[in-house]
Automatic annotation (TrEMBL):
Protein name per its UniProtKB record: laccase
Superkingdom, natural source: Eukaryota
Top-level enzyme category: oxidoreductase
Job of this protein: Lignin degradation and detoxification of lignin-derived products.
Organism encoding this protein: Oidiodendron maius (strain Zn)
Compartments, as annotated in UniProt: Secreted
Keywords, alphabetical: Copper, Disulfide bond, Glycoprotein, Lignin degradation, Metal-binding, Oxidoreductase, Repeat, Secreted, Signal
Amino acid sequence: MRFLACLAASGLLPSLFSGVTAAPSAHSLSKRCTNSAADRSCWGDYDLSTNYYDEVPDTGVTVEVYLELVNTTASLDGVEREVLLVNGTFPGPTIIADWGDTVVVHLYNGLSNNGTSLHFHGIRQNYTNQNDGVASITQCPLAPGESITYTWRATQYGSSWYHSHFALQAWEGVLGGIIINGPATANYDEDAGVLFLNDWTHETADAMYTAAETSGPPTLDNGLINGTNVYDTEGSRFEMDFVSGTSYRLRLVNGAIDTMFKFMIDNHTMEVIAMDFVPIVPYNTTYLNIGMGQRYDVIVTANQSTADYWMRAIPQTTCSDNDSADNIKGIIRYDSTSTSDPTTSAYTYTDSCDDEDMSDLVPYLALDASDSDVSDDFAVTVGKSGSLFKWFVASTTFVAEWDNPTLLQIYDGNDTYTTASHVIELATADEWVYFIIETTNTVPHPIHLHGHDFSILAQGTGTYATVDPTLQLTNPPRRDVAMLPGGGYLVIGFQTDNPGAWLMHCHIGWHTSEGFALQLVERASEVTALIDDTILSDTCTAWNSYVSSSGVAEDDSGI
Ligand SMILES: *[C@@H]1O[C@H](CO)[C@@H](O)[C@H](O)[C@H]1NC(C)=O
Ligand SMILES: *[C@@H]1O[C@H](CO)[C@@H](O)[C@H](O)[C@H]1NC(C)=O
Ligand SMILES: *[C@@H]1O[C@H](CO)[C@@H](O)[C@H](O)[C@H]1NC(C)=O
Ligand SMILES: *[C@@H]1O[C@H](CO)[C@@H](O)[C@H](O)[C@H]1NC(C)=O
Ligand SMILES: *[C@@H]1O[C@H](CO)[C@@H](O)[C@H](O)[C@H]1NC(C)=O
Ligand SMILES: *[C@@H]1O[C@H](CO)[C@@H](O)[C@H](O)[C@H]1NC(C)=O
Ligand SMILES: *[C@@H]1O[C@H](CO)[C@@H](O)[C@H](O)[C@H]1NC(C)=O
Ligand SMILES: *[C@@H]1O[C@H](CO)[C@@H](O)[C@H](O)[C@H]1NC(C)=O
Ligand SMILES: *[C@@H]1O[C@H](CO)[C@@H](O)[C@H](O)[C@H]1NC(C)=O
Ligand SMILES: CC(=O)N[C@H]1CO[C@H](CO)[C@@H](O)[C@@H]1O
Ligand SMILES: [Cu+2]
């Protein structure tokens, strides 16, 4: 667990996976500069000022990764339970590529009793919607014993994760990191890799779903730091060694089902350099608010005295219930031979479930938003359908069908989408679309959009119409997950520059399953030409045959 990812730090060394490297072109021989610990801003002929929405390095490299789902047991915090894992580890293998590479992921479903699909969270999937890995939207679920290949271009750079987008499977352990090497807005010595922050229970998420659906979100037992923690006297903590004077890049990922964390390392300051896949003008902070699905890249410098320090992921009780709230901790050791527990104290903070302040989140590549061509206002509510909790967006609780994914409907020329599959059609190219998402309910929600980074135009408490906030159109924060505050509003905007069927949903696992989602069918007339009908129909044929033999029935939103 210590610096396995350092190899990739410069981005110039070969990736850990089998890559097919093209002969260097004359182009690459005349590189302007070399990315190094002393100059992270540079990236060959490209740099931080490259508009990565338009331009991508032509590396000629394809990174090919084989992943396999396994059904096993593991004692991640010392307590054994059933888990579903990618290649047998939590987190699964990190996908590492360079900015501009093509990534090919071959996924084998080794489970006997679940379908699957693998979503590459935050990856733009520019004109490659079918590789977004969302069951019921871009594919039928992948049946047990079957394989599927996803292919996409790394048009952005930074940190993310992949996870299952089938039922609650992501939170049984089907997740892993993604690192796309590229330039950075501040210098650091070592790339320590992805650091997952998760909540964790001793029952499976599947087993807890009935309780979640009938009585609301359950209290969770524990949390994990990069896949490990203690519980009572069992388990072991995440540990990382610091060498005095060295600076480390940590790629934080909140992979929790229902926990907003404050992350901190006692006595240390973090320099924040990226949110999701967007590099930002760096700022320093002692603790960081990180919502479900969000990522932050931070640099921590080992400039404290030789001692042991706690690293903490603290669930915010305003929106999360956890029985080990003050014990989701790892250890930073300056003396690697030390075995004692740190005695340091947490920074003081006020419990809350707010995003980092919008004014701190300044994209380095400054892009302005335009006035909207189209806008929509969605009220988010919760209610009971029979005895079950369901979430509603504009009065619709989302249900899409495993065996009739949106892409198949588009391919079949059938646009009579069901009401429950809540399709918003965005037919016109390159328009600015605004969505106002608001709720009078006190629960905050991390809103995630597929296929785009969105601009955060406003975020606050109160009713949107009453507050009537001034929208921030000048270089607003851009990312792919933002918090809808409890009793508040979130206004996001983006351009219709990517044809496909894209999901927008709450990233709280229970809420996704309980229908908090809608889908955008963007530029439908261009979508059919992008579909690989062999992959689409083979996956659906195998799925239909699995369903008829197993009798499995959809009992959630299908995503
Ligand atoms: C996205 O795909 C379109 C269509 O293939 C292409 O014209 C455009 O250059 C791509 N954008 C990036 C950043 O690669
Ligand atoms: C995952 O496991 C499969 C099967 O053992 C193996 O072939 C593959 O190389 C592994 N992938 C990675 C990225 O380690
Ligand atoms: C995993 O194995 C357990 C025990 O055999 C079984 O009950 C469960 O259905 C399996 N889950 C999946 C997803 O295959
Ligand atoms: C997935 O497998 C788990 C057991 O591992 C089971 O509880 C759950 O019902 C299965 N879900 C589906 C949709 O097949
Ligand atoms: C977290 O685990 C991943 C996968 O094993 C590893 O690549 C990464 O380096 C670990 N993170 C840290 C900070 O050690
Ligand atoms: C951490 O900071 C506190 C408060 O400034 C200080 O009292 C303590 O000595 C520091 N701990 C270490 C191990 O440096
Ligand atoms: C350590 O670095 C932080 C910023 O990362 C700075 O605020 C602090 O003053 C430094 N402490 C020492 C002892 O140099
Ligand atoms: C953060 O603190 C470090 C150490 O004091 C300093 O070098 C860096 O310039 C600071 N960054 C910002 C954005 O203030
Ligand atoms: C078209 O889609 C609708 C809704 O998904 C479905 O009810 C209908 O059967 C489909 N029609 C055809 C001809 O496939
Ligand atoms: C041990 C601990 O801090 N538990 C907290 C878990 O979350 C609940 C609900 O927010 C709190 O009441 C507990 O104090
Ligand atoms: Cu939610």
